[in-house]
Specification:
This protein is an all-alpha fold. It has a single domain, classed as MFS general substrate transporter like domains (Growth Hormone, Chain: A, Up-down Bundle), CATH 1.20.1250.20. It is 74% helix and 2% strand. It is globular, with a radius of gyration of 22 Å. The two termini are 36 Å apart.
């Protein structure tokens, strides 16, 4: 029986051959799964911290921070801007620094915004610019996704890669829903006693401990960072300089997939950031935060649970169906919004969230399939093993980079809602723009990856 040529706990693994069945069955799978199991909670915490402003912002006016609607939408949008920008850099960090080390460091960085929020909301003299800085620091959580996905992508064979990435991302995305469920509950009680500080009287007369929205994540962040440092592995075979990875900027499919993933993940994260404030502004009589967590929950579970669908039927065909669904649902949101129906509005948004989850899985399944064909076409002289390894490195870089570009949805969608409301008195104009964008994504998916004559049909 074949055995691994190093201890399974080795921090750096020099020989990694997931496509070798004997290697995979006799220790490889165990190492890959351990890295995945540690990655998931670290990524869940990253999403929780990244999107925590979507709840905190809605509560700031209740404890005396008198900001305009546009200022509040800016606070909700800025974590998306910084998170997306950081993802561009984080996309290339794993092959340079190693996935184990980078996961531990980037997870520990979440302590800055978590602690910062906890202290800032307790002081009524905290200036608006300080909240802007903290909103930008929350982007550390957004950046972590790119490096997390790149790290996990190296560990699995191509037959299992789509599902592994879907599980990592989908359960990581649950951090948004977890945060939107936990924070409204935990801010109502003095959970941390004297250490956590005193509550502040809300306009309703109740005491709110808004600082708990930041403090609650601190012990879990510490545990996840320690687990990553001692439990994960760096892969020597994944090493690559930035120059080696930068070849993806010459790949047209990198830019096409940036667009398509913006349509799916950009919508998921953008609506997650903007939905609570949007719904509150349009339906002030509804306790929006009692329902807001359901959208990200639906999307995260759909992503984690439907990776196999793309592996079975092809990522491109699933993505095509996703965009068709999103077009109909976005127009449905407009119809029910104009009808003044909260439940119709909410139901259509749940359809949008579900479709984004399925699409997030299907688009990431497409990337390795596309690059295997592209590298074979562009580098026919490479031996099979070298070609596979090169395709894996390009796929990992593209997955990270597309996630960076798509994350700008967390900025543009809330800002689009705020701008639409400021200019037209309502969010309908923004929703029509989103629907038009989904039409364009659907057409591109069909032309590049579904039609019979396409050389990259997948």
């Amino acid at each position: 029986m074949a055995t691994l040529p190093y201890p399974v706990s080795a921090p750096v693994i020099a020989d990694w051959r997931p496509e070798d069945k004997a290697f995979w069955d006799n220790g490889g799978a165990r190492i890959a799964n351990r890295n995945l199991l540690i990655s998931i909670p670290a990524l869940t915490l990253s999403f929780a911290v990244w999107m925590v402003w979507s709840v905190v912002v809605a509560k700031l006016p209740l404890i005396g921070f008198a900001y305009s609607t546009d200022q509040l939408f800016w606070l909700a949008a800025l974590p998306g801007l910084s998170g997306a920008t950081l993802r561009i850099f984080y996309s290339f960090t794993v092959p340079i620094f190693g996935g184990r080390r980078w996961t531990a460091i980037s997870t520990a960085s979440l302590l800055l915004p978590a602690l910062g929020i906890g202290f800032a909301v307790q002081d009524p003299e905290t200036p608006y610019w300080a909240f802007l800085v903290l909103a930008l620091l929350c982007g550390f959580g957004g950046g972590n996704f790119a490096s997390s996905m790149a790290h996990i992508s190296f560990f699995y064979p191509k037959a299992k890669k789509g599902n592994a990435l879907a599980v990592n991302a989908g359960l990581g995305n649950l951090g948004v829903s977890l945060m939107q469920f936990v924070v409204p509950l935990i801010i109502t009680a003095s959970v941390f006693g004297a250490i956590g500080g005193e509550g502040r009287a809300a306009t309703s007369g109740d005491l709110l401990f808004l600082q708990n929205a930041g403090f609650v994540w601190v012990p879990f962040i510490l545990a996840a960072a320690i687990a990553a440092w001692f439990g994960m592995n760096d892969l020597a075979t994944a090493k690559a300089s930035f120059a080696e990875q930068a070849v993806i900027f010459k790949r047209k499919h990198n830019w096409i997939m940036c667009l398509l993933y913006t349509g799916t993940f950009g919508s998921f994260i953008g609506f997650s950031a903007g939905f609570p404030l949007l719904a509150q502004s349009q339906f002030p009589e509804v306790n929006v935060l009692a329902y807001a967590f359901l959208g990200p929950l639906v999307s995260a579970l759909a992503r984690a649970g439907t990776g196999w669908v793309s592996d079975l039927y092809g990522g491109a065909r699933v993505t095509l169906a996703v965009f068709a669904t999103m077009i109909v649902a976005a127009l449905g949101v407009v119809w029910f919004l104009q009808a003044g129906s909260w439940w119709g509005f909410f139901a259509m948004f749940m359809v949008v969230f579900f479709a984004t989850g399925v699409g997030n899985a299907s688009t990431f399944q497409m990337v390795p399939a596309i690059m295997r064909k592209e590298v074979a076409r562009l580098m026919p002289d490479l031996e099979a093993e070298a070609r596979t390894r090169h395709a894996e490195k390009e796929s990992a870089a593209i997955i990270g980079f597309t996630s960076a570009i798509a994350a700008y949805g967390a900025f543009f969608i809330p800002k689009a809602f705020g701008t639409s409301i400021a200019l037209t008195g309502g969010p309908v104009a923004a929703l029509y723009v989103f629907a038009g964008f989904y039409v364009a994504c659907m057409a591109i998916t069909w032309f590049c990856y579904v039609r019979k004559g396409s050389p990259t049909r997948c």
